[in-house]
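Please produce the structure of this protein holding oxidized coenzyme A.
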Amino acid sequence: LPQVPDIDHSKFGDVERVPLGRIKKISGPRLQASWVNAPHVTQHDEADITKMDAVRKALKSDAEAMGTKMTPLAFIMKACVHALREFPDFNSSLDPDGEHLVMKKYFHLGFAADTPNGLVVPVIRDVDDKSVFDVARELGELAEKARNGKLQQKHMQGACFTVSSLGGIGGTAFTPIVNAPEVAILGVSKAEMKPVWNGQDFEPRLTLPLSLSYDHRVIDGAAAARFTRYLADVLGECRNLVM
Ligand code: CAO
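Below is the modeled complex.
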């Protein structure tokens, strides 16, 4: 690779040299490997989650009674399983021989977690077999482990697809880097109330921005548009997301 120029910044002003954290030292080369190996494209879309949010709010107190926080991310992960089933190429990896796809028959989903020490990706196994309550509980447990630096290797292995949610922070869209050898990653930004034309009036609808980055060696643009639209529809109808 062409090298970035090595500049002595202290020639231009005061500087301080601080060591990179352990997680950044591991994740940096992995992100770069994905970036240089997989030609990335990002497909943007929006989901109307007005109904989903009403269901989430209705389940909130039941979840709290179980000691769980019912976050939108749990519904989004359940919806991703539906889309991965409908479009199995998104649940694959490119074989290193470059001539085969390894199709996965399981649905282990990673989620990006921001911690004081850097970005980690814990994995929830068999999301298809779990209710939204189970997914929300595991999300909370794994995110807490991540923040406390208690994640073990086994908690971060085997993902087929990753969701990176910045929705709790803000933003309208971003372009996540695929967690290779996975072939796609879903970026989720902050849901906002938007006026949507229903043919007669503008209606306030809660709108969730979706940003799907994919490895263009495996996924065609039309397939990515169909996957993201399907995912938006599943979220919109909020069908089969609870159990
Ligand atoms: N739109 C609007 N609000 C949202 C939202 C969305 N898409 N997603 C979450 N929220 C809300 C939640 O409902 C919650 O509100 P209340 O406290 O009022 O209920 C608030 O935002 C905070 O959510 P949270 O962060 O506690 O929970 P989460 O499930 O959304 O996220 C986790 C958990 C671990 C994913 C998150 O803490 C985190 O680390 N996010 C950063 C991930 C990251 O760094 N990604 C970039 C990686 S580089 O590609």
